Amino acid sequence: MTKAIRFHETGGADVLRFEDVEVGEPGAGQARVRHSFVAVNFADIYFRTGLYPLALPNGLGTDAVGVVEAVGPGVTDIRVGDRVGYLVGPPGAYSQVRVMPADVLIPLPDGITDRTAASLIMKGMTAQYLFRQVYPLKGGETILYHAAAGGVGLIACQWARAMGVTMIGTVSTDEKAEIAKAHGCTHTIVTSREDIAKRVREITDGKGVPVVYDSVGKDTLEASLDSLQLRGTFVSNGTSSGPVIFNTGRLATKGSIWFTRPAMRHYIEPRAHMLDMARELFDHVLAGRIVSEPKQSFALADAAEAHRALEGRQTIGSTVLVP
């Protein structure tokens, strides 16, 4: 038996339970992983609340790092003792030990610790696919990025700086503005006291930006649309404040805006491509261009407390659970 966080109904953080679960031997194409760190992502809250549906009862989380304890028949590129991370697969990362499909496991290089990797796997790969695939940046652009002091945001700040991209980042407090700037964000907008679109137009001499990366959703929709250039691109990569709902005709009235709602799973296949994405991320980290460590940690049993902190915007950067 091992311990895991599970939930039997959707709702607030109090629905999360710390339970005994059975973990068997890995079958064909599978590996058993003992976790060292489990990442907390806002998508976990979407599953917990029912915004993203799951059959219940179920586990939670798709992002963790650890050591391979056993492999099943047919597994050739993952071995016992390998340090690995993963960001896709069935829910259940909020656990001490679990059996996983081996083809989603990403080997970790020697120069990156488990703790560092826990803040990188999902969040760093998210920055990679947003900046390098969804709207490929070439360098020299000025972009708007919402939630610049979040887990993905702090990595995005550094990635933008490494590419020579001028990043305008929104944050909720002056403290978060200083942290985003320290990580490479060129300009910050404190949303509690500044008009986002107005400041973007001031910074860009009235031009607006070619792309907005918006993980906030409902609360920033209007500002995002009003910050874009003619034929600009609105990347809706999250809905932490609520879903984005609007008449698509407004894309025309706002300047023939392109709109996309990407999902990670559509950008990491096949496995060889996922490993190339990870390699690009790890190269930046090993070269010192991206530095990332969890800013908050909670015991696995305290996952509900971690969720409350994340929902209450009380966190900076990434948050992990320690089994």
UniProtKB/TrEMBL annotation:
Protein name: Quinone oxidoreductase
Record SUPFAM superfamilies: GroES-like (SSF50129), NAD(P)-binding Rossmann-fold domains (SSF51735)
Keywords annotated in UniProt: NADP, Oxidoreductase
Lineage: Bacteria, Pseudomonadati, Pseudomonadota, Betaproteobacteria, Burkholderiales
Top-rank lineage group of the source organism: Bacteria
Signal peptide: none
Gene3D superfamilies: Medium-chain alcohol dehydrogenases, catalytic domain, NAD(P)-binding Rossmann-like Domain
InterPro entries: ADH-like_C, ADH-like_N, ER, GroES-like_sf, NAD(P)-bd_dom_sf, QOR-like, Quin_OxRdtase/zeta-crystal_CS
Enoyl reductase (ER) domain mapped to chain residues: 11-321
SMART domains xref list: PKS_ER
One Pfam family named in its UniProt record: ADH_zinc_N
Species: Variovorax humicola
Keyword Lipoprotein: no
